[in-house]
Design brief:
The chain has helices spanning 6-28, 30-65, 74-87, 91-100, 103-113, 152-155. By secondary structure, it is mainly alpha-helical. It has a domain at 3-114. The radius of gyration is 29 Å and the shape is elongated.
Length: 172
Amino acid sequence: MRFSMLPVFGLLLPLAEIAGFVIVGRAVGLAATLALVVLGFVVGSFLLRRQGISILRRMSAEGRSGTMPGRELLNPAMTVIAALLFIIPGFLSDILAILLLIPQVRNLLWRSIAKRFVVVGTAGGGFSASSRPDFRGRPDKSGDSKVVDLDEEDYHREPNGKSPWSGKQLGD
């Protein structure tokens, strides 16, 4: 979707959700419609609580180990997105959430977006930067170090007796 269509989508989605409320409300009644909206919120909250923390932990653990997350994080990520869609009041967002919970739809979605991902890894298995200085006592191999080593006499200065501020105390 082009970004120029995003405001139009942002305006039409709430209108479509309101139309969905009217259609479902006429078909099943006001109480059942409200019960379905509350049920969707409860299901979304449960899914988000269950999957949200675990996916953050998995992503953090994979980041610390230096591995790049891939398809194995797709299922929990799609579950989190589905949970957020369930929490949004409306029936169209609930239908999209239910679709995201179906494994075949997830696989189809993965095949369509996997081509757009570019994973860049490093040879050491972790993250590194060549311009970063090495503070472990080893000299920088690139010769382009931005670290300046100063002794105490290099940055120490004596007070200037001719300054109008010398000898004054705070509040004088």
